[in-house]
Write a structure and sequence with these properties.
Oligomer: single chain
Bound molecules: adenosine monophosphate, zinc ion
Mean pLDDT: 90
Largest sheet: 5 strands, parallel
Number of strands: 16
Shape: globular
């Protein structure tokens, strides 16, 4: 497989350090609020990558952290801790917030068929590891104490700005942008490893350390959690593009300073999901979550499909119209699978199977081209292969795509042949679908009441519209 590596800025053959095995690390969510569907775009694409690596026969061990302390409102070293802000907003404790939103995150993942990584580790359970690594960084001369905090000294590195898609001067400005300069730092790019005396004194969670009572910085979490579970070498590190700087840059700085050798070979960054008005945010405008999609009647897997239709290295614009287009093409795809289900007889034609499989693997081998992989599903359906071959291929592709293609087609089949529903009800159901499509939710509710008056209940489910007798 060839993957674009942000570190070398080239598409490269992906060769894990140890034959047949992959160590993979993912920056997990900051659990101060629900994940928005932008965050989940990153997790969907990383999940697809993991599943494809497994599909090719590699044994993947994937680790993810849960950021429940240390991530400040700015990705640098300023602002309140996001967790504390969340706790204040909801008048709960930080740990209550962390538990609630960690569970909510995994529920969203489940709805999107995102597999839970092999190891999930909250930052608050690794404080001893952070302290040990920070102590070693101080000993090795890579970190210093100033004003009560411990800082990483970026001037000790030969090269700090490793993701040199950016200009060094721009990044230096980025560090300062909108941020009061921290007089303790020896160099502008230095970053905090451990906070004790900062202006964020009301931090709820604090731990004893050799430098006083305090809490870790965000970046040290990922280095330590990765090293704890995956050892000194990492094959593949993933995250959204905003993580490249400063977060991943700092992870590399401190990990390599600590280890004394190169740490991670491949860096996989997912470009952002944006709205028409720019970057998706949890605080501005409509807060787009999986629950909101469901409330509006969308099957969450259609959102997964929507993401797979675009390449992970291109920004993607979310609009309801774009999502509706994905619904239409998803339903068409399901409609094409339906007739194949009714005839499962026949032997698998291995020549056809291999030929069609090759177009799927060629697509994904080429820097995870998921949209071409979906075209490969259409190619299967258009091909002259018999139904057994088609079904076997679609089932196999869906180990990676995870769109529940066969199950959804089966359920759609059942829906069509179900109950003797009067035409009047069916017509109203169609009118209601149209009203929902046009976002006329008041009219949709009105029609639902009319349907109820005729003795039927209509419900949107993950598989589509369900009509039942009351
Ligand atoms: P956070 O919960 O803020 O730590 O972010 C979780 C993940 O979502 C990180 O990998 C971010 O890089 C990623 N992310 C944040 N915003 C977006 C976005 N609009 N589109 C795609 N990924 C995002
Ligand atoms: Zn991270």
């Amino acid at each position: 497989m060839h993957l674009y590596n942000s570190l070398t800025r080239k598409k490269e053959e992906f060769i894990p350090r140890e034959a047949g095995k992959v160590s993979m690390y993912t920056c997990g969510p900051t659990v101060y609020h629900y994940a928005h569907i932008g965050n989940l775009r990153s997790y969907i694409m990383e999940d697809t990558l993991e599943k494809y690596l497994r599909f090719t026969g590699l044994d993947v061990k994937r680790v993810m952290n849960i950021t429940d302390v240390g991530h400040l409102t700015s990705d640098g070293d300023t602002g309140d801790d996001k967790m504390l802000k969340g706790a204040k907003r909801e008048k709960k404790t930080v740990m209550e917030i962390a538990k609630f939103y960690t569970d909510a995150f995994f529920e969203d993942c489940k709805k999107l068929n995102i597999k839970t990584p092999d190891v999930v580790e909250p930052a608050t359970s690794c404080i001893d590891e952070f302290i040990r690594v920070i102590e070693s960084l101080i000993e090795k001369g890579f970190a210093y104490e100033a004003g009560g905090n411990i800082y990483f000294d970026t001037s000790k590195l030969e090269k700090y700005y490793v993701f040199n898609d950016f200009k060094e001067e721009d990044l230096a400005v980025g560090v300062r942008e909108g941020v009061e300069e921290d007089g303790n730092k020896k160099n502008k790019a230095d970053f905090v490893l451990w906070f004790t005396k900062s202006k964020f004194d009301d931090q709820e969670l604090k731990w004893d350390s050799p430098w006083g009572i305090g809490y870790p910085g965000w970046h040290i979490e990922c280095s330590c959690i990765s090293m704890k579970h995956l050892g000194e070498y990492l094959d593949l590190h993933c995250g959204g593009i905003d993580n490249a700087f400063p977060h991943h840059t700092n992870e590399i700085a401190q990990s390599e300073a600590y280890l004394g050798h190169e740490w991670c070979n491949y860096w996989f960054h997912v470009l952002h999901l944006n709205t028409n008005s720019g970057k998706m945010s949890k605080s501005k405008g409509e807060f787009l979550t999986v629950s909101l999609l469901e409330e509006k009647g969308y099957n969450p897997l259609v959102y997964r499909y929507f993401c797979l239709l675009s390449h992970y290295r291109k920004s993607l614009v979310f609009t309801w119209e774009n999502l509706d287009n994905a619904v239409t093409t998803f339903n068409k795809l399901i409609a094409k699978i339906k007739p194949v289900l009714s005839d499962r007889s026949g032997e698998i034609d291995s020549a056809e199977y291999d030929r069609l499989m090759k177009s799927f693997t060629d697509a994904l081998d080429n820097d995870l081209n998921t949209s071409l992989a979906i075209t490969a599903v259409y190619d299967v359906l258009k091909s002259k292969a018999n139904s057994a071959t088609k079904l076997a291929l679609i089932e196999k592709f869906d180990e990676v795509l995870c769109l529940d293609l066969i199950k959804t087609a089966e359920n759609a089949e059942a829906e069509n042949t179900s109950a003797d529903i009067p035409n009047e009800v069916l017509e109203l159901v169609e009118q209601r679908k149209l009203a929902r499509k046009e976002k006329n939710f008041a009219l949709a509710d009105e029609i639902r009441d009319k349907i109820a008056a005729l003795g039927y209940e209509v419900k949107e489910t993950r598989q589509g519209t369900e009509i039942n007798k009351i």
